[in-house]
Amino acid sequence: MTDxxxxxxGLPRWHPxxxxxxxxxxxxxxGWAVNAVSDICEQCEAxxxxxxxxxxYTVGLALRGAPELAVYGLPSTTAGAVLNEMxxxxxxxxxxxxxxxxxxxxxxxxxxxxxxxxxxxxxxLIHARAVFPNVPALQVVWTDGKLFFPWEEGYTLLDDQQPVxxxxxxxxxxxxxxxxxxRSAGGPNRAQRRARKRRRR
Length: 201
Fold this sequence. Notes:
Structural class: alpha+beta
Shape: globular
Number of helices: 6
Strand order of the largest sheet: 1-2-3-5-4
Number of domains: 1
Largest sheet: 5 strands, mixed
């Protein structure tokens, strides 16, 4: 059966999983989708996929050239509001600057500051990976009641209350901003080094 709905460049027209198809439909309607997964999710419970920690993530920000976003440990309503607000912010701010500069971001949806870190483990973002397999993702990490982030001394929450799926850059000195230069000719190769040693003997 042919799908006659409007196609979006970069967005698959069809997927074999009906839940992923429903996410694709929401992206077509709203520009991106927020998927919330929690221990009270009936579909997840029926499939035996209940998570250890509630989380939510976006699908479709890749169409705007931004990474997908995820947040862990918040109720689904709050998580959705956080991700929508962060999505709006990424429309006007370059995400790499927010990550590299360790920007603490204040949101209307949350009483504590947040930071963005690049995710290394994106296995939880099932629909995002199904629709955009190679897209990068950022985790929105929030502070505890004492305003400490999980990687700071004094953080009071347990690891399973807000798992961190990336490696935060905690160095005090920032790397220089600007293009990194990669040189293809970095010096003599192994054969040239051996020939040079033989000549010296």
